Each structure stands twice: as C-alpha cells, then as structure tokens.
Structure to design on (192 residues):
C-alpha cells in the first residue's frame, strides 16, 4: 500500500506541480471548447488522455521502445500547439472539434506518457512489478486532472454566467494564449 500511495502522489505531482505547465496547458486546450454541462464528456476525454499516457509509460518502462528525451520534450509542447490551433481553426465547428478531441487526447496522451518514462524506468526496480506503480501513478494523474478541470469549469461558469463572456471569445482567448505559450516552449526545445 505504501508503494501505491507513493506513486499516487507522484502522479498527482506530475500534473499539479508548477513544473507541470505543459500538462496543464494541454488539459486547458483540450477542454476549452466544452461547457460545465459537458462534465461527463470531459471526464471521458481526460480519461482517454490518461489511457494513452499509461500505455506509453508502461511500454517505456518495459523497455519496449525508447525515444530520446530531447525529442519527447519537443513533441509534448507541439501537441499543445496543435490542440490549441485546432480549437482556433475549428471554433465554428464545435461538434466536430469535440469528437476529434477524444482522438487527440488518446494519441497525444501517448506522447505525453513518454515524458515521464525515463524517470519511471529508473524509479521502478527490475524486481518490482509495474502494475502497482502504474496504477498508483495513473490514478494520481487522473485525480490531478480532475482538480484542474474543476478549477477551469468553475472559472468558466463565473465568466459565462456572471460576467456574460461569449463562449466563442473564451475559446479564442484561451486557445490563443495556450498556443502562444506552447509555441514558445516548442521553439525553445527544438532537438536539432
């Protein structure tokens, strides 16, 4: 149980800490097109991200493949750039965008999972099974994402209901801001 709690906390920190800006920006870009009434869709969406994340993490820990960390650090913000750009370009096609986001979450989750793989590979001893660490880490990650999503949805509710912000303006503002930050991170991390 102690190992499980250790990895649960690690997963939580992986998404909640100040060093996790890339993951937080990805979640923000991913859910920017949804409303607080879409909470079930959002839960499925972030779970798809966690599934993609955990598949790649497991394959990396098992040493099925390795991707140089410089490329992973470049690809992670690139996924954020593409997700936010998709929001901007498809802002008038919300239903298509929302369906596409499930695939983006799963596929880009695969890339984000590689971001923790090198650290996890070192932390999980050869004699230790990977089931408990992966389960704990991914539950912690999922709980952290839920907290981030709740904070975003509360902010969205306040902006839309109290301050009467237009939903399309919200999507454009958030997606443009995330795009700019992620593009800067991507350009700083070009691996060649």
């Amino acid at each position: 149980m102690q190992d499980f709690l250790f990895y649960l906390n690690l997963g939580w920190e992986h998404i909640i800490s100040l060093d996790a800006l890339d993951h937080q920006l990805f979640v923000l870009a991913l859910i920017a097109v949804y409303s607080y009434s879409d909470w079930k869709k959002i839960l499925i969406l972030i779970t798809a991200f966690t599934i993609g994340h955990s598949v790649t993490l497991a394959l990396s820990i098992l040493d099925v493949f390795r991707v140089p960390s410089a490329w992973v650090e470049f690809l992670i913000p690139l996924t954020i750039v593409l997700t936010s750009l998709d929001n901007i370009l498809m802002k008038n096609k919300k239903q298509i965008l929302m369906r596409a986001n499930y695939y983006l979450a799963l596929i880009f989750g695969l890339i984000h999972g590689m971001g923790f793989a090198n650290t996890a590979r070192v932390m999980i001893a050869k004699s230790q099974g990977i089931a408990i660490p992966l389960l704990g880490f991914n539950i912690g990650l999922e709980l952290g994402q839920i907290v981030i999503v709740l904070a975003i949805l509360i902010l969205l509710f306040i902006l839309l209901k109290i301050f009467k912000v237009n939903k399309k303006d919200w999507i454009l503002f958030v997606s443009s801001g995330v795009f700019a930050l992620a593009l800067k991170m991507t350009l700083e991390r070009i691996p060649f």
Q: What stands out?
A: The chain has eight helices and no strands. The chain has a mean pLDDT of 92. The CA atoms of residues 160 and 167 lie 7 Å apart. The helical segments are 2-16, 21-31, 39-61, 69-89, 94-113, 117-123, 131-162, 167-188.
